[in-house]
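Bug: token stream looks shifted between consecutive jobs. Job 1:
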Amino acid sequence: MQKNSSEKQLDTLARMVANKKVIPFLGAGTSIEFNPSWDNLIKDMGSKVDLSHLNTQDTDYFLNAAQLFENKFGRKGLCTFLRSQFQISEFIDDKGTADLMLMSNAFPITYTTNFDNVYETMMKKYNRDLNVICSANDFEKNTPSPKTLIKFHGDYNHPDNLIITKNDYKHRMKVRSGLDIMLESHLMTNNLLFIGYSFRDPDLQKIFLELENILAKRSISVYMIAFEYSDSLQRECNKYAITLIDPTKMFPGKHPKVAFQLYLQKLNDRSQRLFSSAQFHGLFYGSVPVKGVTNMEIETLSRNIPNETFDNAFSEFEHLYSGPIQIPKDRFKTVSEQIGILCNKAVNSQQLQKIATYVSYTYLTRIPDKELMFNNMIDLLKGANRNNISGKIDFMSYGSVLNWEVPDPSVLIAIMALTCSDILKNNEPILNHFPDYLVTLSEIAYPYCLLPNDLKEFTEKWLTKFHESAHTPRDSPIYWQHHLFFELHQNIRARKPTDDDISILRKLINQRK
């Protein structure tokens, strides 16, 4: 089927993102779930300083309001006010779609005009290194880091670099700053992507004016994913040859905020697939240099990680198996055992997700021995029980990237039964949320009742025993599958297990007798 213009545009952006040939530039829409709207911010300012004489239709209305606030309370008072409005103590994933998309795509450089600490708080939550730059001088102070956030207008923690009042903009437009030079150098070989701006942003036109000279010198593509599309925004973008993307065209009928988030999710999904495809194409077709991993390196890692913390162990594991790699065929089992050790070390759901996500997007997904992969799926599930997860661990991404012929929901119900068998035989405690998690997984799994009789009996036996031992008020996975597929006549979405899958599952069961 021929793709429409919106899909083609998305493909173009996804390729740029996957190839790291674009510089993201974040606007207020990326943090709107955490921060007050501009209208509410002005309202709060107006409760402390008289703004009644200002023209609300003036394009500099917000800048003038901020100037009056500073005139009355000083620079320190203005920064204190902004901190009370924009500083967060906790990053909530459901509110930070744009920031998570940027983190997962590992952009080395990100620009923003936002004053908040949302991006920094997210990176801290997930233990990612980040340099924060508010002036060119900050490069000298910061330690080297693979990720950098450049706050183009400063923030409330750097009063001298903050650009928010009318006087700040007057000075900025007269003097070429170090950050202007920095952006110009970054755009020498990269395109520019504005994310989360709307015509309601009080400094939008000023931003375009700031960048006009920089963009005029570069033959690059400039895109904007609108937080809220309008004809006015379209006209403004046309002035500067910016391609404006309206997410509601791809998601008609959705609220602009919802469409914006859905568009970013779709961009992330597509760019991740393209990135993975490019990485692995080189492995099998030779277009990208492949790093060979030696037996000595693998043995060293096996000696080191049992005695280290999860963070240190995972860091070493990630470093060794990064990029397109070639593992000696006789060491696949050792690598699988290392994954199992990491699962045992994980002390929270975030760490388990790190394992699942990393393995999903590396060569390790293509370990040809399915038995090892099945065992690692069991390791992840047992780790989920030990950590008493309350949210979903997307471990099914392990083995389902790019639709490769690797474990997927077709074997999931039997893997769940093998996991329950191990937990009960080893007298491991069953923590509160895990039985509920198994019920959730059973909804996407191939129906156990359609498995061969021996696998069906094994699955029913151990899932039932586990449910009885868990003393949970929830229905068992066995009951729930009966309910879904027979009482509700739900379509079977998971593919049927292959003969090879069945053979491996039987082998794993026999090993446990």
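Job 2, same session, no restart:
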Amino acid sequence: AIGLDVYGNASSNVTTFGPVYPRNDSALPTTLDVNYTDFTGNEHEVLILARTKGLSAVAHLHQDGAPIANATLVFTVEDDQDSYLVDAMTNETGHASVDLALLSDLGPIEALGDISLTFRYDGKYDDPLAQPLDATNATQAAYGTVLVDLERTDPLPLDGDMMFDISLSVATEDVLQSAYLANMAVNWTVLDADGTEISNGSAQAGGNALPISGQGAHDGVLVLQLSSDPPTYYVPGFTAVYEFESEPVVDVNETNTSDGVDEPDEPTFPDTTLPPTLDCGTATYSWVDNGTDTSIDCTVNNPNAFEVELTFEWSVVPNTPPPISFTYDRGTTTIVEAEGSTTVSFTPVRNAPSDGLFPGTQGVGYVFTLTCTGDVQCGTMDASTASTVGELQWTLGEMPVQDIEPAPVADDASSAMTPVLVSIGLVIAVLAGIGGVLYLRGRGDLEFNDDDDEEEDYYEQAMAAPENTGRPKSVDLAASKSLEELKDSGKSLHSDAPEGLATSPSLSTSAEAFVSESIAEGAVAEEESWDEEASEDDGITVDENGTEWWADEDGTWWYREDGWEDWAVWEE
């Protein structure tokens, strides 16, 4: 039927014909194959990336070899701080490519250390005419490196003992990564002209210099090797090679003398000036200037067989002087004789507190230059000037620890008096509370409500009592005795206030009211007044209502109101 209404009636009847195809809604698995090309051309086992270098990637999306066209792929570059996404579309062959001229085109990525590269396909599930395609992804590990520049074109000089002492200038291609040079370490090896190893060692960069010294060889090479596991620092091939100078050639000319004997002439003048060699001391300076700063002395050697002029300059002159700087004490130029030496001193200058520095080894770069001074001979040289770059090193002491004086401690006398004063205050407060309760209770007895039926019995009892009704309802008048009778029976008196007064339920409320009223109206003044009015006679205490109180040796409290002759027992 073409259509059915709610009653099951068909609009028209038709007969179906043709093949029936089954539908399969299970997702087909997909695959992503990705090829990456880093800035080194994939010369190394690890994919190496740099912020200022490019990256190319080609991804192939297919289902069991059949390309998936017009599919959107998401390419992600992620390090420990940043994550960037790039979309790519597959063509009819199922390929999609991502080409980055610079990795920094993605954004302010640091690109140092471990980096993850991922292509992701989210699948296809919404086509009613096609079987769904499952999602897939492919991830590749990479490593972000610091690009290092180590360049020196001049041959490395050697002294008479075949030793070399050089300082290579070190810089980063990316100026934002200059701070990472402080921890760069290299291994070095010296090979002679035949490739035989002469010496080896390791060196670490300090600032923008890499000092290396050891035994060399004429016409040999110095090979620097950076670690590639992990490739934290990078130079092409992780290797830099520098040549040593050749052995000097001395020409000996033979001439006929008048006596027919051939004698050698003087050696010819060299074509180049050798750079100076230096031997510098060091010093340790305290964090705070204590007047003990000493100069650092350097011995500058002239390896040339002729007189030279020595000049000095700092490698870098900052606009703002550092907390500790040095002055060079030899002026602009110094003349050093052939194969001679001279000593120069650097005097420390405290420009500011050491707060901006860190304890430990410090360094400041310098350049010493030797220039041939002979007018005629120097003019025939290929290079009449040679320089040595180095670093003046010194140590800054540890930051002093500031002692914080403890807070003053009260002396023993004042500490001992504290409990006494507290006890006196508590006694005064208790006495004031008792007096206030008795005072308020006396006022309450005078304000009975004549119309209160519920208090009728109490009212009648109160009317039968003496005018000053300071005793409670529970008083047993039959127990009344005179003071003389009590004394004759061996009773002794105590001056403490009756404890039942504070524990009585009816008087407790009155005491709280009295305390609140005393705080508001000046409780301290009333307490002092009440204390002055209280009198003691054989241990008898008189309150503000005129009622006398005392306690016998058994702890029983007795009282006598104003106008009574006998004493009555206090009952709670």
